[in-house]
Amino acid sequence: TFGDFFGEISLIHDVLTTATISSMTYSIVTKLSSCTFKKIQIYATDIYDRMVQHTFKYKDEWTLFKIKLLY
User: What mean pLDDT, rounded, does the chain reach?
Assistant: First the structure.
């Protein structure tokens, strides 16, 4: 959907990206470097908080395990 993102788990938890994405319509995709992401953590906390909250929607066993450890 418009304004949505993926791959945030790899940036938040500093792990390899495991996301597989396919689009049924025309999409514009950009890449966010870890350096830029660190700046977002510091200067755009509202965006960072939204990304962290976005991770809670995932229900796979590994993600739920990590969430329990971190929160």
Answer: 81
